[in-house]
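Sample intake sheet
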Amino acid sequence: MRTVGFFREMSKTDSPVYTETLPKARAEASDYSRRDVFQYLNAGYPVLDVMESTTDLIGGAFHVPGGPSVLTDGTFIWRTDLAPYVQHYAIELPADFVDFMKLNRYIIPQVPQNALIEIAYSVSSMLGFRHDPGAAPQS
C-alpha cells in the first residue's frame, strides 16, 4: 500500500506518513487528464472517514469537508482533499500512480471486501488511530 498526497503541510504532527512536500501549482500541461484523475480519486473506496474540513494550502480556492478522510484503489491510498488539488492546480503526482490509473483506464479496480477491511485497519494504525476491538466486525 503506497501513500499519495499525504503532504507534510497538512499534518499537525511529525507523522512519518506525511513525507511528501505539497507541490506547487503547475502552469504547464500535466502528464495526466485532470478530469479523469479527479473522477478516479473521487471514486476510490473509503477506508477512513474523518469529520474535519480542510482548506486549500496553495491558493485558498476551496474547502473540503472530510478532507483528511482516506480512499484507496487497493494499491494506493490518498486523502479526499487530493482530488481538488488535481482539479484546480494539476499538481504533480507520482509517476507510478499515474501509470497505474492509466493502466486501469481511470477506473478503480475491484477490491475484495476483506482486503478493504485490512487496508482500513492498516490506515487507521498508520495514522495513529487506536483500534477498538469492540467496534470491529465479529467473526
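Comment: Strands lie at 2-4, 45-48, 53-55, 63-65, 70-72, 76-79. The first strand starts at residue 2 and ends at 4.
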